[in-house]
ABC transporter substrate-binding protein (Streptomyces noursei), 582 residues
Amino acid sequence: MRRSLPVATVAAITSAGLLLAGCSGKGSAGSSAGANAATTGVVNASDEKGGTLTYAMSDAPESFDPGNTYYAFVYNFSRLYARSLTTFKPGPGTKGKELVPDLAESLGKPSDGGKTWTYKLRKGVKFEDGNLVTSQDVKYAVERSNFARDILSLGPNYFQQFLVDNDGGYKGPYKDKSKEGLKSIETPDAQTIVFHLKKPFAEFDQLVSAPQTAPVPQAKDKGADYTKSVVSTGSYKFESYQEGKKLTLVRNPQWSAANDPLRKQLPDKIVLNLKVAQSTIDKDLQSGNTQVDMAGRGVDGQTQAQLLTDPTQKANTDNALGQRLVYTAINTKVAPFDNVECRKAVEYAIDKKAVQTAQGGPIRGELASTVLPTDITGYQKYDLYPQKYNGDNLDLTEAKAHWKKCGAGNISTTILARNDRQDEVDAATSVIGSLKKIGINAKLQQYPTSKYFSDYAGVPAFDKSNNVGLMMMQWSADFPTGYGFLQQILHGKAISQSGNSNLSQLDDPEINNLLDSAIANTDKAAREKAYGDIDRKAMEQAAIVPLTYFKVLLYRSPKATNMVSTSAYSGEYDYLNIGVKK
């Protein structure tokens, strides 16, 4: 485990971070790259084929199954072997938010006031075994990912919430053996799929960009074990998978550029090494032995300090906002945090500047006061719980007043964090120090990324039995709109018994109704205003303590081609067409 950064090192990082903020580079094809070049252009643009592209990750993903995952980096990576109905066109910064058809011929055709959406699949798309992809394969993918939550619990449950017959007793494809399946998804022919919703969903094209719409052949579905041998529709397919160690992809011979205008199929092979120490990943990126850090979380603290004080190395870094919020979720179902006054006390008590320092300084994120990050449409600047300082010390007057009003006295609780994310552990440690000053004694429990949401954080039964009052969280948008950011962490119907993202278990009727009304509104400007209003309502409930608007510091391997840092996938590099210099 990496040690926490000493104060002197953090100070150096912060100072260097100010220098980086002023750097820029021309990232277009044929130009010299520099710091932040991949946030504005394509670095090392090339169509050179061949070689082995190597990724690495400090832990292991929860799943490689497109229908059973909820990490942005797996959404990004899975596009190599799974084609959803729509996706985001590779592009730097906000250009990466451009939504384009992928498996579908075009964006959806809405009817019935936005309650019915129709898509036509591209002709000739095949699975890796040579069988043609049909609309029934897409329907089955949605059925298994949203209606078999006892087996596949890790992805979002939008379709379960919005399809017409989700309350009609359908038990999912593993229990319901009828050929009809969901009545609310029609497949009138092999190329057409029609979704029938309870109410208008103005951003449905965004929703079907999720890998949950990537087709799955029912005959080859292995339930929870499908993650070990996903049947590819993308430019690459599984060659081998050693759980917790390595995944190897090779070119899919059934893929055709004729029906895929997005993918280039550049490397011969793609290797992902798992459970590699972050410090080792950082060194391998610099040496060229690894080309991409899979999780896209950025370099560790010691590497960060070295990079930002070395002009040559700094030129290979990208520091971008990624539509992410770092926050502490407060469990509204565990006493005393079921009392809003207790939660408000926590809002005032957590020293956000101390958390920011623990994470690596301003280069890792600006201080936050809202649920929506500044780079999500709908963001409105405000602060319901302003923090005042006496010198370097946070003024706790408001925190103590609310804690006294809450009447809990001295209490003990548990705070959760991911053990392979030292910055998150350091942030949690800072939170513990802050809360102790008002009488909250929090004990830190750490769990791996691969099991954090499936077994621990946000799992109602676990959190209740273990007195979990607080959970560390970093959240990015499911798709780059206010609804795509807010719904799964604020709506009561998003709460699941496992794989839950509404860690606070907030179920406020007014917020639920506002979210439902906003997504039904076809007026984009009105929707965006509503998202800001919902943000404020959520902060009034004090179920989330915004800490920082996360920024990532990525090291761009000189041996990788077609590098773009994209907003669509949380500031990570777009993985669709990265190549390797031979």
In short: Residues 1-31 have pLDDT under 50 and may be disordered. The chain has two domains: 52-271+556-580, 321-552.
